[in-house]
Amino acid sequence: PQDAQTIRLAGLQFVSSYAFEAMQKVDVVRLAALSDPELRLLLPCLVRMALCAPADQSQSWAQDKKLILRLLSGVEAVNSIVALLSVDFHALEQDARKEQQLRHKAGGSNGESILVSQLQHGLTLEFEHSDPLRRLRLTLSELLAIMNKVADSNGEFFLKSSELFESPVYLEEVADVLCILQAELPSLLPIVDVAEALLHVRNGDWFLCLLVANVPDSFNEVCRGLIKNGERQDEESVGGRRRTEALRQLCQMNPSQALNIRAMVVEECHLPGLGVALTLDYKPDTADEAVSPLVSYVSGLLLGTNSKVRTWFSMFIRNGQQRKRESSSVLWQMRRQLLLELVAILPRSRSTHVPNDGDMEEEGASGYSGLREEFVVKASALLRLYCALMGIAGLRPTDEEAEQLLQLMTSRPPATPAGVRFVSLSFCKLLAFPTLVSTPEQEQLMVMWLSWMIKEEEYFESAAGVSASFGEMLLLVAMYFHSNQLSSIIELVCSTLGMKIAIKPSSLSKMKTIFTQEIFTEQVVTAHAVRVAVTNNLSANITGFLPIHCIYQLLRSRAFTKHKVSIKDWIYRQLCETTTPIHTQLIPLIDAYINSILTPASKANPEATNQPITEQEILNVFQSSAGVRRQRYSITTQLLILYYILSYEENLLASTKQLALMQRKPKSYSAALMDQIPIKYLVTQAQGLQQELGGLHSALLRLLATNYPHLCLVEDWVCEEEVTGTLPLLRRMMLPSNTCRYTQSQLHQAFQKLPSSSPRLMRILEHLTLLSPGDLIPYAEALTASMALLLEPAVPRRILQTLNKLWMGLNTVMPRRLWVMTVNALQPSAKLLRQQRYTQNDLMVDPLIVLRCDQRVYRCPPLMDIVLHMLNGYLLASKAYLHCHLKETADFDRQNQTVSNLGVPGQPDTPEVTREELKNALLSAQDSAAVQILLEVCLPTSEEQQLGANTESLLRSIRGPLPGKSKQGSLGPRARGKVEDAEQEGGLLSDLREVQCLICCLLHQMFIADPNIAKLVHFQGYPQALLPLTVAGIPSIHICLDFIPELLAQPQLEKQIFAIQLLSYLCTQYALPKSLSVARLAISVMGTLLTVLTRAKRFSFFMPILPCLVAFCQAFPPLYDDVAALLVQVGQVCASDVATKARDIDPLIARLQYLKEKPQGAVAPGGGSSKLSLPQRTAEELGGADPDVQLCYCVEATFMDIISSTLHGL
Questions:
Q1: Of the ranges 455-464, 616-625, 1164-1173, which is most confident?
Q2: Chain center to CA of 130
Q3: Coil, helix or strand for 1084?
Q4: In the record, which residues are listed under signal peptide (predicted)?
Q5: Cα separation of 804 and 783, whole Å?
Q6: How far apart are CA 1077 and CA 347, in angstroms?
Q7: What does DSSP assign to residue 470?
Q8: What Rg value do the Cα atoms of the chain yield, rounded?
Q9: With 705 labelled, which of 486, 586, 901, 1168 sits at a CA distance of 20 to 30 A?
Q10: Cα 478 off chain centre by
C-alpha cells in the first residue's frame, strides 16, 4: 500500500519553489509565467486577493490587481472558488462551534451533526452533488472530526481513512475548499492545528503544501508547530516518517528556509532524520570545496559542546542500525552519501611500495602523496566524522565502508601542515578502531604505511614548517606500548582526535605487537629519539606533541640507560632553547632526568645511569648573564638550570643511603660553582615573572628554603619591599637615564680622600641610591673595599647611613658574594696587612669569623647593622652546611667503617644518633658563642665608663632608681654628679646605646627561632651588669621564667646567684602570676640554702642576692612576709656566729624583729628621717669587719630599702 501511495503522490502536482517565491513576493510577472496546472494550485489565494478590498491603496497595486484579474479570467475553476467565497461564513462558524459543543458533550462520538444533515450517499458523491455551502460544510465537518481525534489521541499516531481526502478526482476542489475555510475562519481553524490534522490523512503532505502556498507567510509558524509536536526519533514510527516527509516537501517548496528549519530541529531535539534529510536535499549556491554540508552538519552535532544534542543524534544512529537496510531510510541515505564523498577523494592510483631514496629524487618533493593537496582538509574532516560516528554514536561500518576508510587512512598526503594533521588523525584512528584492520593484506598495508611515516617524518617536518609533528607522536606511542601505559595511549588518541571515545585497552593488543616487535623496538626508539632536533624557543605557546614529550617518557621508562644511549646533551640543548611562558613538560623532564642520574635502572646493573650536566656547561649559561652577551641565554634557561642544580643536590642528599648500599657516589657540584651562580638575583627576577613561569618560582623557593636558608631571611624579604616597592620606582623614574654619571674609580677615589672628600662622596652615594639593585652590582667592589675607611673619626653619619642603605639594596641581588667581600673588608688592620682573605666556605664552617672584625665596628651602628645581618645569615648557612655534610658522609663512612670501636670488645659501631648529637652540640656552641660575644660588645669600655655610660639606664628609666646598690651608694656626690651630667649630655642617643638596641633585636629573633639558645646562654651566665639591658631590651626573654627553677636547682652557687638576680629583673619587668610563683620558689630555695651553706659560702651567696629581695617586694607586695622572715632568719644565723665578737649584735636583732613587726614605725609619719637611724660606717670599717657582721648590716640595709621603696611607691 505504501508503494501505491508513493506512485499516487508521484502523479500529484506539488507547488514549485519558483511558484512559492512568486506568491511570497506577490510577483505578478512571475505568476503570469506559471503553467496552468501550477497556477491552478494557487487559485484560492489569488481569487481572494482579487475580490477582497485591499489594505494597499497604491497605484502600483491597482495595476498589479488588474493583471491578476486578467490572469484569472481565462481559468474556469475560478468561478467555483468565487461561489465558495459568496457563502455566509459567520453562520457557518456558528454552526461549527455548536457542533463542536455537541460532540464535546457526547464524548466525541459521531452522532448528530449540525453542519451536515443525514448523508444519502458516500462523502464523495455528496461532495460532487452539493452546492458551495454544502461543500464547505462537508469539508469542515470532516476536518473538525479529524482535529478532535488528534486532540484526543495523546500523541499516538493514527491514519484516518477519508473518502473526501483520497478521491483523486476531487482533490483540487477539496483543496480549494480547505484553503478558503482556513482563510475565512482562522480562529476556528488555526493553521498549525489544521497542518497537524492533515498528517493523519492520505495525501496530507500535498494538502499541507497547498495550504501553506496559499498562506505563504505562515510557513515558519507551520514548520515550528510540526517540529514541536514531532517525535524525538522520527525513523521509529510511521507518524514520524510522515511528519518528516511532509516537512521535507515544505522545505523543497521553500528551500531558502531549509537551514532555518534544520536549526529548529536541533533546537527542539526532535526529528533527527529530518535534519539529515534537509542536509541531503540542500544544494548551496557556492559549493565549499573543503567540507561538504553533510560532513559539517553531522560533525557539528556529534562534536559540539551540547551533550543533549549529541545523545539525541547518537540514539538516531544506534536505532537506525537495528532495522534492516532500507533504501528509503534517511540513515542509509546519509551513509551512502558519506561513502560517495569518501570514494571521490581517494587517490586513483595507489603506490603501495615503501619508497626509497632513489624514488624520492625522481618523484621530487611530493612526498609520495597519493592524496591530492586540495582534498587533504576534506579527508581530515571525513576521518574525524567517521571517528565520531563510530566512537560516540556507535556506528558499525559495513565491509565496504571499512575498506574505503582504510584506503583513505593509509594514503599519503603532501608535506604541508594540513598533511601532517591528516597523518596524525589517520594514525590515531587506527589506534582507536583497530577492528578496521581485519585481513593479513590490510595489516600489511598498515605496516607499510607506518614504515613510510617513520621514514618520511623528518622530511615532512622540514617541508611543512611545523615543530609539532607526527614523528613525536609515533615515538610517544611506541614508548607507551613498551612501558605498557595503554591508558596514556588512549588519552593521547582522544586529545588528538578532539573527542572522548571509549577505547578498551584490550583492543590495542594487536597494535602493541606490531609496534613493539615489527616497527619500533625499544632500541630503535631510543636511538631515534636522541637524533630528533630540539624545539627552538620552546614555550607553552607551542602546542601538540613535541620531542620533549617523547624524551620525558623514555626517561621515565629508563630506556636510555638500558640501551646505553647518552641523553645529557639533548636535554642541555633543549633547556638552552626555552623561553616564556614556560612549557609545562620542562620541570617534570628535569625531575625525571635527575632521577635517571642518581638511581640505576636495575640493581643488577648499578652503573646504568645517565651523565649529569658538566660544571663548564652550567657556567656557560651563567657567565653570559653578567657579561656583554647578556641575551645569549634567556632568563628561563638560567632559572631551569638553577632548578636542576638545586634539585640535583637535594635528591643526591636524599638518596645517600641507597647510593651507599650500591657503593655508588655520584659527584656533587662544587662550592666554587655555586658561588658563581647569582641565585638570589635569579629568584628575584623570577618573582616578577610568576605568571609566565608556572610553578617554577615556588619550586625554587622551596629548594632555597631547604638548602639556602640564609637567602630566605624574613628581614631580607621586608627589605626587598622597600627596594622594589612603588616609592623607589618613582624615585628611579626621576633619573634621566639608567646609566650612572659616576664610575667605580671615581667612587674609589672619593673614599680614599676621606674626610676631606665627604661632600663629593655623599653626592655619589646619593646618586647611587636612585639606581636599581641590579644596576648597583658593578659598584659593589668599590663600596665594600673601602668600608674600613669609614671607621675613621670625623666621617659624617649620613655617609654611613647611605652606605648601609646601598648595602641592603645590593643584598637583595648578590648576598653571598657581598657578604664575603664585606667580611674581608672589615678585618682588623693587622689581618689586612697579612692579606688573609676568607672564602664563602670558611665563613660557613666558622660563622664567628664575622665578629672578628675591626673593634671600631662595634661602636659604628650602621656598619654593626650590616655585621649582624651577615652573622645571622652565616649562622643559618652553617646549619644547612653541617646538615648536608652529615648526610653526605654518614652513609659512606658507615659502609667503609671497618674498625670503629678501637679494639674494645663488645662495643657496637658508633650509632648515627651520636653524629647528629655532635652536630647539634656544635651548632649550639656556635650560637651561644655568638650571643656571648654580642653581649660582651654591649658592655661599656673603660673609656665609656669614665664618660659615664651606664647600661642600667634603660631599666632605670622604666622602674626608677634601683635600691640596694651599695657600690653606687658609696660614690661621692661629685662622682654621681659627673655621671648625671654625662647622661644629660649624651642622653639615650649614643653609639653604644644604638648598638645595644641592634644586638637586642637580633638576640630577640634568635631566641624566638630557637628557645634552647636562650636557655643555654643563661645557663652559661653573663655579667650581672648586663641584666637590666637584656631584660628590658629583649622582649622574648620572658621565656627564661620557664627554666629558672631548673637553674636554681644547679649545684653551683654562681648559677643560683645569677638565676635570682635575673628573676629579680624579670619580676619587675613582667609582674605576672608565673613570676610570683617562681619568686616564691626562689625565696624558699634561699631559705633552704641558709641552713646548709658554710660560713664562707653563706657570705658569698647572700651578699649579692639580698638586694634582689627589694625587687621581689616591689613587684609583689604579698611576698613581704616571706622576705621579712627570711631576712630575720639570715640575721639570726649571722648573729649567732658573731655573738662573742661584737657587742651591738643583740640590739641589731631586736631592731630587725621590730622592723618585721612594725615596718611603718621605722619611718616618721611625715615621711621624715628614720626613727631608728643606722649608724654611719665607712667602707673601710665594713670591709675590714667580719663577713657575718657585714652580712648583718646588709640585711638591715635591705630591710630599710624595702620599707622606703614600698612607702615611696605609695
A1: 616-625
A2: 84
A3: helix
A4: none
A5: 10
A6: 100
A7: H
A8: 52
A9: 586
A10: 31
Q: DSSP string of 393-446?
A: S-----HHHHHHHHHHHTS---SSHHHHHHHHHHHHHHHH-GGG--SHHHHHHH
pLDDT for position 618? 84
523: left (phi over 0), alpha (psi -120 to 50) or beta: alpha
| Burial of residue 961, with CB atoms counted within 10 A of its CB: 0-12 exposed, 13-18 middle, 19 or more buried | exposed
Convert 507-538 to b/e letters by CB count within 10 Å (16 or more is b). Answer: ebeebbebbbeebbebeebbebbeebebbeeb
pLDDT for the residue 1029: 92
Give the torsion through C-alpha atoms of 854, 860, 862, 867, to 10 deg.
Answer: 30
Say if CB 305 and CB 211 are below 8 A apart.
no
Mean pLDDT of the chain: 77
- Pick the closest to residue 785 from 797, 798, 803 (CA basis): 803
Phi, psi for residue 537 in degrees, rounded to 5: 50, 50
Tally Cβ neighbours within 10 Å of residue 1202.
Answer: 25
Instruction: Kindly report the three-state secondary structure assignment for every residue of 710-761.
Output: HHCCHHHHHHHHHHHCHHHHHHHHCCCCCCCCCCHHHHHHHHHCCCCCHHHH
Task: Please count the other Cβ atoms lying within 10 Å of the Cβ belonging to residue 205.
Answer: 22
CA torsion sign for 910, 911, 916, 917 is negative
Helix-helix angle 912-938:1011-1020, to 10 degrees: 70
The three-state secondary structure class of 605 is strand
Print the SS3 string covering 621-681.
HHHHHHCCCCCCCCHHHHHHHHHHHHHHHHHHHHCHHHHHHCCCCCCCCCHHHHHCCCHHH
Average pLDDT over residues 1127-1131: 87
What is the predicted pLDDT for the residue at 1154?
A: 65
**pLDDT exceeds 50 at position 1114:** yes
**8-state DSSP, 602:** B
Residue 476: helix, strand or coil by DSSP? helix
Distances in whole angstroms, Cα of residue 949 to Cα of each of 427, 776, 987, 994, 1025: 88, 39, 9, 13, 12
Please provide residue 578's backbone torsions phi and psi, each rounded to the nearest 5 degrees: -125, 155
Contacts of residues 129-134 at CB distance under 8 Å and 24 or more positions apart, as own/partner, are 132/80, 132/83, 132/84, 132/86, 132/87, 133/87, 133/92
**Is the separation of the CB atoms in 501 and 516 below 8 Å?**
no
- Which residue type, as a one-letter code, is found at position 318? R
| pLDDT at position 1004 | 94
Residue 534 has phi, psi (to 5 degrees) of -70, 160
Q: What is the pLDDT, as a whole number, of residue 1183?
A: 46
pLDDT tens readout for residues 498-556: 888 888 877 788 788 877 777 777 777 777 777 677 778 888 888 776 778 778 877 78
Q: 354 pLDDT exceeds 50? A: no
Contact 459, 439 (CB under 8 A): no
The whole-angstrom separation of Cα 1191 and Cα 1135 is 9
| The C-alpha cell that represents 1123 in the structure block | 622576705
Answer for the pair 42, 77: CB distance below 8 angstroms, yes or no.
no
Cell of 790: 669609614
Report the SS3 class of residue 513.
helix
Q: Which residues contact 298 (CB under 8 A, 6 or more apart)?
A: 276, 279, 313, 334, 385, 388, 389
pTM score over 0.70: no
* SS3 assignment, position 514: helix
Helical spans, DSSP H, in 1034-1174: 1040-1048, 1053-1069, 1073-1092, 1095-1115, 1120-1137, 1145-1157
pLDDT for 770 equals: 81
Give the model's pLDDT for residue 129: 57
pLDDT tens digits for 114-155? Answer: 666 656 555 666 666 577 777 777 787 778 878 888 777 766
- DSSP letters for 524-561: HHHHHHHHSPPPTTB-TT--S--HHHHHHHHHHTTHHH
Sign of the torsion formed by the C-alpha atoms of 102, 106, 110 and 111: negative
